[in-house]
Amino acid sequence: MEIGQIVTFFNKTGKYVGEITACYSDRYLVKTLAVLKHPMQGDLHHPKETEVAFFHERKALAYREQTNIPLKMVKPYEGDVPDYSESLQDAFHKLYGELNSEENAFNRKSIECLNSIQKEYAAMYSINW
Prior knowledge:
Elements (H helix, E strand, L loop, with lengths): L5 E6 L2 E10 L3 E11 L28 E5 L3 E3 L7 H17 L4 H21 L4
Antiparallel strand pairs: 1-2, 1-5, 2-3, 3-4
Helix pairs in contact: 1-2
């Protein structure tokens, strides 16, 4: 892969579309262009658990935010790049719906985090929920 190539990549539990801006021997620097899957909430090392030292509130990578991604987590992307705000809304609503479909402590805690994040997204990206 090369600089300027449009790719999909994973970061924590989120999936994104981005553009490679630098290539290194072990990673790519990728600029975020769209959100395909919103990151899950909570502790990555103890998924689906609420009794952890710190229950993380995880936001999606911001529009044009650059991040280092290991080579194996980057794949070529085919097709049109979705609008960032629309893709963020779609990914957010999908995760929210999945969490809302089953009543348990983890889902309740995750929804609390998402409700807080939603307000920040509305302010940052002028999203009308």
